[in-house]
Amino acid sequence: MRKDTLExxxxxxxxxxxxxxxxxxxxxxxxxTDPILIIAGIAITLILLVGGSFAISGFIGNAHNLxxxxxxxxxxxxxxxxxxxxxxxxxxxxxxxxxxxxTTLLKSPIExxxxxxxxxxxxxxxxxxxxxxxxxxxxxxGGETFARFSTSSTIxxxxxxxxxxxxxxxxxxxxxxxxxxxxWVQNAFERVNGR
Length: 195
Hints:
Layout: H1 3-28, H2 35-86, E1 92-94, E2 120-126, E3 132-139, E4 145-149, E5 155-157, H3 170-179, H4 182-192
Antiparallel strand pairs: 1-2, 2-3, 3-4, 4-5
């Protein structure tokens, strides 16, 4: 063999041996840890945990409110089916502290079962021009109170239940007053909020 080929092979073999020794040494040694990096890592982890828990509680509150609004939509659907069969709407009072409960709406052609634990009242009456009408008030598990009427699909937020909004949303006042139901909405608000 040629001398330069043997020297090249020896050089490669010695380089491989050196790399193998370096790798073995790295496996045995433990790297030094930087305390500042550890503290920074812990701080970042805590910030993410705290921020995440606030975000989750916000998601849960929003889900409670969406659930209550969904119940108002289901009430509207059940009321439409009930009206088609009976030429009137059905009243409902559920989970109110007095224990009084009417279940006509629960037996309508499209059955409606409110979310368990949510106080809901559906008031039925004859509106202007002798047209049947209804108004519903519900309190979400998150504490927000909502109202809806038979005249539109708008859902009104009435706040956290501590007091009836003063002034009340103008669109709510207009719609409820046109139906003659404003005092009822205020009364139902007080009842679903345990007063």
